[in-house]
Amino acid sequence: MENIFDIVIIGSGPGGYTAAIRAAQLGFKTAIVEKYSNLGGTCTNVGCIPSKALLDSSENYHSVKTRFAVQGIEVGALKLNFQQMFLRKSEVVKQNVSGINYLMKKNKIEVIYGTASFVTNNELSVKAADGSANSVKSKYFIVATGSKPSSIPGVEIDKNRIITSTEALSLSAKPDSIVIIGGGVIGVEMASIYARIGVKVTIIEYADSLIPTMDKELGKELQKVLTKTGITVLVNQKVQAAKNNGESVTVKYLDTANAEKEISAEYCLVAVGRKPYTAGLGLENTKIELDPKGRIKTDTRLRTAEGNIYAIGDVIEGVMLAHKAEEEGVLAVEVIHGEKPHINYNLIPGVVYTWPEVASVGYTEEQLKEKGIAYNKGKFPFSASGRARASGDTEGFSKVLTDPKYGEVLGVHIIGARAADIIAQAVVAMEFEVTDSALGKISYAHPTYSETLKDAYLMASGSGALNI
Ligand code: FAD
Ligand code: NAD
Fold first, then answer.
1. What terms describe the molecular function in GO for this protein (predicted)?
2. Per-residue confidence at 141, pLDDT binned at 50, 70, 90?
């Protein structure tokens, strides 16, 4: 069988499926190749969607347990049905996968299941699960093969006791204890899920704070919140080894004083970052180059060294986020279409789905200091928000960093209830260069969590907050 397409996309994650939809919308004869039997990639199957389903379920359970009584809601004996919680998670994944299948059909995108490998810059060999191989030819290709979990020296992931987020999202029974290496995004989200349902969780983080790539004040506040949930957070600790003892794992690490320490738990979750995935892609049959981190090199138009092959998402440079991959999928297709699209990488928001949530866009305070850029700071605590008091969600703050001369917003960093949704307003403000004083003058519904941003803008602009 031989197929000739305008655009073939390799990988059906958020980058790939979004690129395919945009390509079909623009009239290209489009195909998408996926090696697994489910479309959706990491995000839909073992990432964003299942983790958020479990984060919601575990937060509901934790709320009933810890926050209902004070509101006068008395429930009988509370019981956790771990299997049902995970079954629901799988159902949510299934619904999302079938949503993507529907979108492929609706947009008349040909879906080809199998592992794609370049034969030339115009031809793929796609090997199906039954071992048969088909040639797929196309004028253009978009590589969207994503990423896989990485590890550190001395820690070998065996997927049994020493596991990644993929296994942690599908455990068959509730464990007693988990030690998590890495206090980045996966570390704190998975820690939240398990600690809320009563698992003893320890996070061992190498840097001096949690979520260390975000604004430092966020990590410090998050550490307080997670510690209150019962999570043991160890920062400034370097993990050296992990050993599977059969029924448990022992993790060895050096503490702040460089003393050797060890801790045992039922599972060790390795959450020290992810690496780009290009294995078996046949890149050696093309001119495509990799950078020292194994990422596919592209120009600003996302073109590789082969002019007709583009690459997007986790497999190239930049933050590993679903919405970044999506934006790049659209950009690559529109470039092929002859348009001049643009992505403002500084305005891609980052969200951590703990409770309260953490959300951030633009420069951190540390980055502004390092670059020698002057800034004004407005920081408003959720404890002073009427909405936050009404719901009992008084932890956290909204912090804005603005240009002292023109009032341009340089960065917004929020830890607080619904921060994930509030941040969208900050992205709009920054994209369209609305000033801090203008943002302090518009009307925000009362009482809402978003009012914390209004007061922070007022503080940064120098006119003073109205609620503190
Ligand atoms: P992927 O989603 O990784 O998809 C790549 C696809 O390519 C896969 O389906 C793979 O099977 C396929 N493939 C690879 N090689 C081949 C080949 N040779 N032939 C055919 N197919 C191939 N991001 C967020 O923005 N928000 C979140 O809340 C969030 N939560 C996350 C939670 C977890 C636990 C994890 C692990 C990640 C999370 N992420 C989140 C990150 C997000 O999942 C990734 O940034 C996103 O999936 C990247 O999309 P992608 O399209 O580049 O690649
Ligand atoms: P990460 O880069 O966010 O965090 C890894 C952490 O491990 C860092 O804090 C790092 O300092 C620490 N670390 C590294 N070596 C260590 C060692 N020897 N000992 C102790 N700690 C060590 O990576 P991640 O949490 O694995 O997540 C991977 C990717 O998935 C991220 O890029 C993230 O963007 C994406 N993701 C996003 C979301 C979201 O958007 N909500 C959720 C989950 C994952």
1. dihydrolipoyl dehydrogenase (NADH) activity; flavin adenine dinucleotide binding
2. very high
Pocket mutation for ligand 2, best pick of 51, 185, 206 (most atoms within 8 Å of C-beta): 185
The model's pLDDT over 417-440, given as tens digits with 9 standing for 90+, comes to 999 999 999 999 999 999 999 999
The one-letter amino acid at 327: E
Q: Identify whether residues 338 and 388 lie together within a single domain.
A: no
Tokens of 341: 């699209």
Q: Is residue 155 part of a domain?
A: no
pLDDT tens per residue across span 389-403: 999 999 999 999 999
- Helix (H/G/I), strand (E/B), else coil: 250: strand
Mutational pocket test of ligand 2: of 274, 319, 348, the residue with most ligand atoms within 8 Å of the beta carbon: 274
CA-CA distance, 45 to 68, in Å (whole number)?
Answer: 32
* Residue 288 within a domain: yes
- Cβ count within 10 A of residue 260: 9
Q: Is 342 a catalytic residue?
A: no
Q: Tell me which amino acid residue 366 is.
A: E
Domain that holds residue 372: 356-460
Distance 314 CA to ligand 1 centre (A): 7
Do 344 and 15 touch, CB atoms closer than 8 A? no
Which residues contact ligand 1 via a Cβ below 6 A?
Answer: 10-16, 33-36, 41-43, 47-48, 51, 115-116, 144-147, 165, 186, 277, 280-281, 313-314, 320-323, 325
Tell whether the torsion through CA atoms of 44, 272, 364 and 400 is positive or negative. Answer: positive
| Residue at 302: amino acid letter | L
Q: Give the number of whichever ligand sits closest to the CA of residue 323.
A: 1
211 belongs to a structural domain: yes
Alpha helices by DSSP H, 214-321: 216-228
Q: Give the helix/strand (H/E) hosting 92.
A: helix 82-106
Residues annotated in the binding site, as ranges? Answer: 52, 145-147, 182-189, 205, 273, 314, 320-323
Buried b (16+ CB within 10 A) or exposed e, 98-126: eebbebbeeeebbbbbbbbbbbebbbbbb
Question: How many residues appear in the chain?
Answer: 468
- Tokens at residue 260, please? 């050797």
